[in-house]
Amino acid sequence: MDVIVLGGGLMGTASAYFLGRRGARVTLIERNRIGTGATIASFGNIRRTGRHLAQLPLAHRSLRLWGEAEKMLGRDVEFRATGHIRLIFDEGSLADMRTYAEAARLWGLELDELGPREIRVRFPGLGPEAIAASFSPHDGSGNPRLIAPAFAEAARKLGAEIIEDAQIETIGHAGSGFVVATSKGAFAAECLLNAAGAWGARIAAGFGEEVPLDARGPQMGVTEPLPHRILPVVGIWTRDKDYGAYLRQVERGNIVFGGAAERVSVDLDPGHATADPIRLPVQLRAVARLLPAIARVAVIRTWSGCEGYVRDMLPVMGSSATTPGLFHAIGFCGHGFQLGPGVGDVMAELIMTDRCETPLEDFRIDRFSRAA
Ligand SMILES: Cc1cc2nc3c(=O)[nH]c(=O)nc-3n(C[C@H](O)[C@H](O)[C@H](O)COP(=O)(O)OP(=O)(O)OC[C@H]3O[C@@H](n4cnc5c(N)ncnc54)[C@H](O)[C@@H]3O)c2cc1C
């Protein structure tokens, strides 16, 4: 089977790789360079805690693949299963965590509850005022700069054609399939996978499928390097979004952080999300609650990225409801990095076998029109 994949972020490149493994002839078309959309901007959190429950089967499948990534792709993409701790500072948030943990257990996610003493002994320097925490030992982080190029390269080795810097002129559909005309030539295939991230709603609209998607930019920052001490990814359970920060320390010592600040609207043309220095103090105040030592280090860079946020904060994944042979994997609402390898595997399974072991019902593209 021939498949055109539109978009060379994590979702498009992972799909190209897994499609190749299942014997598809793949052409991946990226209008910029591989991995330079939302993927490269990611914080790199490979976290299952706090996910919508119906997303957990996909998240588990993806975590297994992150664990195999180095062997599978022949390259260290810096996946480290360091664990994911979420600190708790008030009783209401403790109750929220326990409710979530109980429900998530039924979906195969085990969260340990840590008391204040255990936090101090196991993770010195974190959240001195925390009253408890959840800990997910098998989660961790990966390197957002490495993963999409690694999938693209592995897909290429399986025979995929990877085309970068191609401006899309038209996307046509006739009885036998799709023709995509670009500045680098025209390409035809029986199937088309829309993996164009925040821009993917426009492609869906071209086939009469409306997705209520906003392009927004979450803001990230990184400090100068410090001696490496903080192993897990650190987050928080809180109802107060001004304190909803997270951080991790990379092995080179820098502390990467995000959250707390509002995500700003991004214009899809050209789709460059920029960090706003005014929002930095709000973020740092929230990060300091998790790691007071942040107050003594310099922030050396801030950035943002253009991500697609769907109204119900769930992605759109699966077959088109209007056009046979068309598939979508878009709108990952700021949490697609963890899901990426699983999304690629699932989309390849669906396209090649017309079925999928992992439930995708909640992510159907026609859920909005059906609800209306
Ligand atoms: C700042 C930030 C931090 C994040 N942190 C995390 C995190 O810690 N953990 C987590 O799980 N998730 C995180 N995310 C979310 C995660 O990064 C994204 O969900 C994921 O990378 C989306 O991948 P994608 O392939 O769908 O999109 P993208 O990486 O944006 O790729 C889409 C690609 O499609 C291309 N394109 C667009 N239109 C066309 C077209 N017409 N034809 C061809 N190509 C086209 C674009 O150029 C782009 O390269 C974060 C996102 C941001 C922005």
**Total DSSP helices:** 10
Could you say what the CATH architecture of the largest domain is? 3-Layer(bba) Sandwich
Per CATH, the superfamily of the largest domain is FAD/NAD(P)-binding domain
User: What is the CA-CA span between the terminal residues?
Assistant: 36 Å
CATH class of the largest domain: Alpha Beta
**Strand residues, percent:** 25-35%
Strand order of the biggest β-sheet: 8-2-1-12-22-21
Give a short account of the largest sheet. 6 strands, mixed
The helix-and-strand class reads alpha+beta
Mean pLDDT: 96
Give an overview in words.
The chain has 372 residues and is of the alpha+beta class. The protein has two domains: 2-44 and 145-212 and 311-371, FAD/NAD(P)-binding domain (3-Layer(bba) Sandwich), CATH 3.50.50; 84-137 and 219-304, D-Amino Acid Oxidase, Chain A, domain 2. It is 29% helix and 26% strand. It has helices at 10-21, 38-41, 56-73, 91-105, 116-122, 147-157, 200-205, 280-290, 336-353, 367-371; strands at 2-6, 25-29, 45-46, 84-88, 112-114, 132-136, 140-141, 161-163, 168-174, 177-182, 185-189, 191-194, 213-217, 219-223, 233-237, 245-249, 255-259, 264-265, 299-304, 307-310, 316-319, 326-330. The strands form six sheets. Strands 8-2-1-12-22-21 form a six-stranded mixed sheet. A hairpin with a 5-residue loop joins strand 16 (245-249) and strand 17. Helix 1 runs parallel beside helix 6, helix 1 runs parallel beside helix 9 (336-353) and helix 3 packs across helix 9 (336-353). The chain is globular, with a radius of gyration of 20 Å. The mean pLDDT is 96.
